[in-house]
Amino acid sequence: MAKITFITSDEETITLEGASGSVMALAVDNGVPGIDGDCGGVCSCATCHVHVAPEDMEKTGSASEIETDMLELDDNADEYSRLCCQIDITDAIDGVVLKVAK
Amino acid sequence: MNKSEFPDPFENERESKGYGEMDDQNDPVTMLLRHKDVRKTAHNYKTFQSGAVPGRIVVPSEVSIRETRQIPFEVDPPVHGIYRGLVEPWFKRPLQPEYQEKLAEQITNIVEEVLQEDSVEVVTDFALKLQSRALTLLLNTPFSESETWISWGTHVFRSEGEALDGDKANILYDYIDAEIERASKNPTGDMYSILLDSEFEGRKLTKEEVKGVMVLTFAGGRDTVINAVTNAIAYLAEHPESLERLRKEPEITGKTVEEMIRYFSPLTQMGRVVTEDTFVCEHAAKADTRVSLCWASANRDAKVFENPNEIVMDRRINPHVGFGFSHHNCLGATHARQIMKILLQTLAEKVGSFKIFDCKENIEDLHHFKRKVGFHSINMKFNPLTK
């Protein structure tokens, strides 16, 4: 099990627990505002953009090339940006804090 | 085994120079063919605008048959964002469980209907009906309206040839005008009434603006949905193993929908008007000329997609641009994705196999590119799943 904390654009803090699947799916299933996951997790829509807390980057890893290409055109993107459909839930990411971009 | 194959006519040009050229009613178009260029250009709304003369960014151009500006489609940021924000919650309704239940009921009914038939012409007797009925949910209008839309046939803007048909377009515009008048006198909970009651910068939307949104909704989701539905069925007919896989692994259905949208790319391209002299792919693009974002070509770019000419049902990373890209990405995508997902689920649940009798391909003539987008007709038999 991994505990994942989302901070929405309204500064609301939502902590969820998950065991498998993607972080995007966990957020969508629990109605986290600002995570739409329109494409279901195949990296084509960029509606699951989060900023990983800098100290948690080691746990999540940085964005893949395809993600970087998607995010390159987003004015709001920075070095901590990830598309959370590409972050798998495992014990390794327990405790991460993600700031929802939208 | 090749009726459901959709060749990529752009490969040579995409790889050798990155663009293609087509003439269109004396307003030529430079077609951008590479994934990266298509996305960058779609994002750069200042140099490549949508808010040109109404109809000009559409290829073939609709300038001579339409004056109404489609909204938010033919508006650039920042005003685009205000309109988009107004309509977006309405277009996200397909995510609601009750919407999906109604859609599933419609699709189940139509599948059960065709299972009784010895031969079904899928474009007219399945896809057009399904699309029209589903549109009553998106518009929140009475189901009976779908009969009128079905009676218009598959070509709302075109007669049987490729030429634009102003008279046919007028049928749609007159219909929408009448519906807006009706809703303004007797508001209901339908889309016309909701839009008429919407606030834009401190005032209500005008009837012309409401018409602009409605024309977009009717036009953008007709041929595209009909082709996606028909092509998906043709593919499953020729790939029984894929139908079987959807039965055994229903969890991949969402990925399969995305992959089909990539592979079929129901909308070939969308234009932009260049606002300043610039270059695309080292090719000069002059102010007041047109470029197009060729989604269909970008979606077969081997630099991005492994085995681009195959349907890989569970393709995990699939940054396709079948619903466009950036500010103007498809407003109806949520509705379209639900239609496709529920369609695949229902077919997997009820259909054992299909048989294709004959078909007539729909080939788009893009000057020296000829692209298969779907079928004019395809006659099939749907066989029930026996458990």
UniProtKB/TrEMBL annotation, chain A:
<keyword id="KW-0001">2Fe-2S</keyword>
<dbReference type="GO" id="GO:0009055">
    <property type="term" value="F:electron transfer activity"/>
</dbReference>
<dbReference type="InterPro" id="IPR001041">
    <property type="entry name" value="2Fe-2S_ferredoxin-type"/>
</dbReference>
<dbReference type="GO" id="GO:0140647">
    <property type="term" value="P:P450-containing electron transport chain"/>
</dbReference>
<keyword id="KW-0408">Iron</keyword>
<dbReference type="Pfam" id="PF00111">
    <property type="entry name" value="Fer2"/>
</dbReference>
<comment type="similarity">
    <text>Belongs to the adrenodoxin/putidaredoxin family.</text>
</comment>
<dbReference type="GO" id="GO:0051537">
    <property type="term" value="F:2 iron, 2 sulfur cluster binding"/>
</dbReference>
<dbReference type="InterPro" id="IPR036010">
    <property type="entry name" value="2Fe-2S_ferredoxin-like_sf"/>
</dbReference>
<keyword id="KW-0479">Metal-binding</keyword>
<protein>
    <submittedName>
        <fullName>2Fe-2S ferredoxin</fullName>
    </submittedName>
</protein>
<dbReference type="InterPro" id="IPR012675">
    <property type="entry name" value="Beta-grasp_dom_sf"/>
</dbReference>
<dbReference type="InterPro" id="IPR001055">
    <property type="entry name" value="Adrenodoxin-like"/>
</dbReference>
<keyword id="KW-0411">Iron-sulfur</keyword>
<feature type="domain" description="2Fe-2S ferredoxin-type">
    <location>
        <begin position="2"/>
        <end position="102"/>
    </location>
</feature>
<dbReference type="GO" id="GO:0046872">
    <property type="term" value="F:metal ion binding"/>
</dbReference>
Automatic annotation (TrEMBL), chain B:
<dbReference type="GO" id="GO:0005506">
    <property type="term" value="F:iron ion binding"/>
</dbReference>
<comment type="similarity">
    <text>Belongs to the cytochrome P450 family.</text>
</comment>
<feature type="region of interest" description="Disordered">
    <location>
        <begin position="1"/>
        <end position="26"/>
    </location>
</feature>
<dbReference type="GO" id="GO:0020037">
    <property type="term" value="F:heme binding"/>
</dbReference>
<feature type="compositionally biased region" description="Basic and acidic residues">
    <location>
        <begin position="11"/>
        <end position="20"/>
    </location>
</feature>
<dbReference type="GO" id="GO:0004497">
    <property type="term" value="F:monooxygenase activity"/>
</dbReference>
<dbReference type="InterPro" id="IPR036396">
    <property type="entry name" value="Cyt_P450_sf"/>
</dbReference>
<dbReference type="Pfam" id="PF00067">
    <property type="entry name" value="p450"/>
</dbReference>
<dbReference type="GO" id="GO:0016705">
    <property type="term" value="F:oxidoreductase activity, acting on paired donors, with incorporation or reduction of molecular oxygen"/>
</dbReference>
<dbReference type="InterPro" id="IPR001128">
    <property type="entry name" value="Cyt_P450"/>
</dbReference>
<dbReference type="InterPro" id="IPR002397">
    <property type="entry name" value="Cyt_P450_B"/>
</dbReference>
<protein>
    <submittedName>
        <fullName>Cytochrome P450</fullName>
    </submittedName>
</protein>
